[in-house]
Amino acid sequence: MIRFLKLFSLVLAMAFALSSCTVVEEPNKSTRTLARHETVAEFQGTKYHRCLGMTSLCPDKCGASGTIAVFKIINYLDYNKFGEYGDPKSEQFVFLIEDNMKNLKVPENIRDTVNSLKEGDIVHLSWDHNYVTTDGGSGPERPITKLEKQSSPQK
Fold it and tell me: Which of 10, 27, 87, 102 is such that its CA lies 20 to 30 A from the CA of 140?
């Protein structure tokens, strides 16, 4: 019996080791754009945001706590809502730059632009409201499509 357990343990250990080497393909992903926002905005600074979710990982390990960038919308240059569920025009846009575990949540060029801004700077800020479906589920994403410092507000 002991010999059987040792052999069984060895087989399990080998299976575990080999499974970590398996290449996992990207799951099927479809994206539907629900709204597109193109704005002139005022940078209001960055601050720490603590997730108020109710999962067992919140607030420290869920990936939703961290440094956020806050922008006040001055003017819409363009706005398109594609269907019933797109975000309406807003007065403010906030996004997570990096979580509390220092995982980047935006592309590096967006982070670098935010880090170069001072409170009160005027920017051209655009983002999409997408509905993303993968094999594991569905949910909204709001990727920033443009963030550029402007010399003065555009009307």
Answer: 102
